[in-house]
Amino acid sequence: MAFSNALYIHQVIDHMKHHQIIISLFLFLLFSYYPFISVLSSLNHSLVLKNMADALVSVVLEQLSSIIIQEVQQEVRLVVGVENEVKKLTSNFQAIQAVFADAEERQLKDQLVKHWLDQLKDVSYDMDDVLDEWGTAIAKSQSKLNEHPRKNTRKVCSFMIFSCFRFREVALRRDIALKIKELNERIDGIVIEKNRFHFKSSEVVIKQHDHRKTVSFIDAAEVKGRETDKGRVKEMLLSESSQGQALRTISLVGMGGIGKTTLAQLVYNDPEVETHFDKRIWVCVSDPFDETKIAKAILEALKSPASGLIESQTLLENIQLLIRGKKFLLVLDDVWNEDSTKWEQLRNSLTCGCLHGSSILVTTRNRNVANCMGSSRTDILELELLSTDECWSLFSQLAFFDKNSRERGNLEDIGRKIAAKCKGLPLAAKSLGSLLRFKSRKEEWESVLNSHVWEIEEAESKILAPLWLSYNDLPSDMRRCFSYCAVFPKDFRFGRDALIKLWMAQGFLRKTQNKEMEVMGRECFEALAARSFFQDFEKDEGDGSIYECKMHDMVHDFAQSLTKNECFSVDIDGAAESKIDSFSRDVRHSMVVFRNYKTDPLPATIHSLKKLRSLIVDGYPSSMNAALPKLIANLSCLRTLKLSSCGIEEVPSNIGKLIHLRHVDLSSNEIRELPEEMCELYNMLTLDVSYCRKLERLPDNIGRLVKLRHLSVANYGADSWFVKMRGVEKLSSLQELDEFHVSGSGEVSNIGDLRNLNHLEGSLRIRWLGDVKDRDEVKKAELKSKKHLTHLRLWFGSRTDREKINDDEVLEALEPMTPPNLESLEIRGYEGVIPVFPSWINKLRVVILRYWEKIEKLPALGKLPSLEELTVCGMECVGRVGREFLGLGVDGEDGEDSDISIGEKTSSSSSNTVIAFPKLKSLFFWGMGEWEEWEGGEGGNEDKTNIFNSIIMPSLRSLEIWKCPKLKALPDYVLQSTTLEHLEINESPIIGAQFKAGGEGWPNASHTPNIRIIRL
């Protein structure tokens, strides 16, 4: 009755015309909600203390509190009459939280408890969706109010009432109310079942999590206890007996986590092994054993493109050509295949034409696989467990990192007992060592030693128990981030930033008063990496941060055990329907991998997984355009939709009905435009349409996506690329905008549209493809407010594109507007005339100049005092590089001029010595087709007084010259450099011949440690 009465009131109000009555009723309903708000606020305070509570339950309660407060604060009311239902829901969830710690531990040995927890997770997911629907409706109503403001307060109240209680919203309100009631009934059943288990009620515990920053990140790269094994494998590979065999197959066999891959990596990267083989190839195989995929990976490792090859025969023929007459080492890591027929054809192609002594090194958990791959009995090495001392050494190097001698003395006895429980498994020692690295109290170490998880009776439980301990030590939000990684297939390499965006889309990361979601995500990623949940890191050369990694097989298995019936990945190989049928219809996250290019359709079974929150497609399914509308219509709960490189030509308009959608990746498709209905997706956080080479425009109302944080539109290979970007100025939450297109016409996008985007960080490319009418237009961008921008790229269109633009005026107008923390600048297509840059470039560390097609002299870059890296390419009219480049003698005053200060000067007894390029470490010239003379070298020695009285490039470490066919000589100040470590000359035949060993320039440069001459 409560719901029907509320609906009746709504309908009556919709037809009322007397404003006073409406206002009175509105205020009554408004203030009746305040007692309930205080209950929820108190509840939230208690949630902070309950770290062991299920994260999804906490999210539901936080959502409830947020929505109710939002309704009152914004004076927008959409659901009336559900107070009692929400109070009941809150009470039930509180009762569940009190016993959750006991339930989590008991699920390890009691399948009924595990089933109960799965039910709880399922209903929490559904409740989260309902609350998200409720919150989205509030946001839409409030957005419409803001679009149509009223000056008169009374009119505002009237308008709000009528906008909120329009007839078309009645059904939505009723639907939300009924869903809450239905979910409460499900929760009632879960609470009743809870009582049958007689769980122990846990005390409120505050868990302290140490997120200490360390001086250096431990990758645990030092390997313990495998020196003997490494020597045995090397002997097999390098021995004379190997030389007599056409192709020898050596297999490393052992259980998961014992260190097979680590041993293979040690051997693969050994200097003797590297010298012995002409080619080394590493392929991660995993399951299923896909001959075509392996063949493509081999070709790519041999530096041959395989993307356009489909037929196995063609792939194998190409492999034969590349290995003919070569001695190679092929590592096949993580092989599961026991069907020898799948291996024979590939092995035969590898055998044909290779030199004797070539070898294949296989890692596998199964001795039968080793036999199947052709390893003889003497070529199979079964890895033993680590000794007690070796296991302790590996454990202790991690557990005692950053601990002093007193702490080590207090904990060593307990530590040795914990290390003994690892039973010689390297991954277990590594996992527990990483866990205890963050714990310094004796009680914490004893808790790990005495935990009940050591009693788990399950296959390979020796590694499962340590992983459980590490997992349980994580905060609840971090647990969800880790377990989400189960959506990826084994051996999948994922990028840090891409993973963080996926976490954000699922609501795992919450913005705090002091930290953005992205910062929280990076801290979570680093914490998981530090605890050895991730491995095989790719790191940034600059700051050493991890940008890509993967999970160990056993860690991946563990993550999947946590998310059974929740996450799955599937390879499409012709039997996809039967594979997907085996998964629960309540599955929430899925990744579908297409191995065959355009041959397999999207499985129809996907349409029935109506509760999917994540759909990630990797590969190119056939008939995707036909399947997409139905797919979107069925999967209404989606929060992540990743359809990169799927051949999509048109995005259906019904995508606007996916109200929960937060992450959309449509990159590398054939889309021309996006439907306006996408602008109804108020929750959108990430939109990626990069490399959609046919894309002409973004939706005109894209400014409605006020929560959008990441917008990617770049297409780096297309100089004439232009996307109409009206309305971007309203996206004030943007953190990432990789490319902005300036039309200059005033009708599409102007540089001034950037003025409100003050949260932008990282890199921004601005393309000028139209006229800039005056300097004030550039100033409107207010780049000085973009405090987090570190890289700026300015790309100017060709002269035919812009008859009126003045490049010099643009650069000068930017001077007072530059981002304060800018580190690097790229300028492409510049056609100005000034010989030197404006002074605002002084502080830059990296400068890249590309395709200045009309410029005959390089600017005075030697004067930049902070410059460390310089790239100059595509300067087709530059024939000579002289003193003006160094900043010496410019404007006729010993290198000094009024526009820019000299980099550095040193005092001597007789004069001031000018230092040109004082901090330059890396210099790269490319594509200088007419460049003949570099002053200071042979053929360019005239008038060198200023040069030799100066200090030039005192910090230079690397010099690369590519595609400079006419350059005759290098300057003496480069040849005589005592700091130069790397000299590379590529497709520059004149100087390339000079610096080959024995060439006329060799004596002058032979002191340089690394000289590479490529393609003369």
UniProtKB/TrEMBL annotation:
Q: What sequence ranges are listed for the domain Disease resistance protein winged helix?
A: 487-559
Q: Which domain of life is it from?
A: Eukaryota
Transmembrane is among the record's keywords: yes
Question: Is Transmembrane among this UniProt entry's keywords?
Answer: yes
Which residues are in the NB-ARC domain?
A: 227-401
User: Mind telling me which residue stretches traverse the membrane in this protein?
Assistant: 21-43
Q: Which PROSITE patterns match?
A: LRR
Any single GO molecular-function term of the entry would be:
ADP binding
Q: Which InterPro entries match?
A: Apaf_helical (IPR042197), Leu-rich_rpt (IPR001611), Leu-rich_rpt_typical-subtyp (IPR003591), LRR_dom_sf (IPR032675), LRR_R13L1-DRL21 (IPR056789), NB-ARC (IPR002182), P-loop_NTPase (IPR027417), RX-like_CC (IPR038005)
This one is known as Disease resistance protein RGA3
